[in-house]
């Protein structure tokens, strides 16, 4: 006796939906990952903007120079800009600023004030001002 199996007419359509469903699930995962990345970037941006406002009050200046000052600190400390910004915000709220960032902030502020006054002379803490190469 021979046994035959009858497949429904729409069997191929169901399989196509399953494959399309897997692709859709991958798209959803990709979009979730992208969404998480954008949320982290936005959170970092908010902290940077908040720190820029604090620097604008600390060293009376506009937004551009305030951001440049934060970028300068970030470069000196080899730290990401959002981390420096978070430390500045925390210091504003009473937590101590890490020593390396504190020193970098002092150098950046002195450089900012020297540029603001139109002086191009080296600063006291730079090696060329101390007579060393």
Task: Please tell me about this protein's structure.
The structure is a single chain. This protein has 133 residues and is mostly helical. It is built from four helices and no strands. It has helices at 11-58, 63-77, 81-92, 99-116. Helix 1 (11-58) packs across helix 2 and helix 2 packs across helix 3 (81-92). The model is unreliable at 120-133 (pLDDT under 50).
Properties at a glance:
single chain, 133 residues, mainly alpha, disordered C terminus
Structural class per helix/strand content? mainly alpha
> What percentage of amino acids are in beta strands?
under 5%
Report the strand count. 0
Number of helices: 4
In angstroms, what separates the terminal alpha carbons? 99 Å
Mean pLDDT: 79
Shape: rod-shaped
